[in-house]
Amino acid sequence: MQARQLAYLQALGIDVWVRRGAAESERIDRRAGAEPRAAQAAPDSAHSLEQRERARAAPKEPSAAPPHRAAAPAPRGTAAAPPVRFVIQCFKLGQTLALIDEPLMRHRRLLLDIARALDASGASERQDIAFEWPQLDFGDASMAAAGAAFRAFLTAQTTAQTHWLAVGSRVETLIGDAPRDAHVFLPDALEDLDKRALWQEILAKR
Fold it and tell me: Which of 176, 170, 194 is nearest to 114 (CA)?
């Protein structure tokens, strides 16, 4: 469209939008008193460069702290040890109460002969009993509690004339500091018994 036609239409108050090239746009801008586009862009570019330099020189703010991580759970303590479980096999023969740690029951025949020798009444009837640990009526399953329960068991099964035939280190530990004058204590290693010394001890305690 000619510049004259454009001026005529603008004088009539008619807005006309025309597609124009860069050269023509610059000529029209000059007629209107505007600066070339390149000149307008320069301050913006300089301003943008100045902002970038200023931002680069400015002290950086500390970065936000990383999100808090839950501390790793502390290692759990060692699991509580399971309660000690054992059985003390017992039998009464006359005035003798045999108390035998269950693994040593393989020597039952020998132990029965020793019990007969220790009993002066000559009784032939045998009564079998067992002490099992832990017991349902005890909340504490420790060895200390086991010792207290076992001594209570002995009190219920013993009279003033009773001889104990205590067989094995576990039985000796459970009995504790009870008097031993009238009783016979045998070790775990029954194969190594000095039978002559044992016989002399039995004769002294009958």
Answer: 194
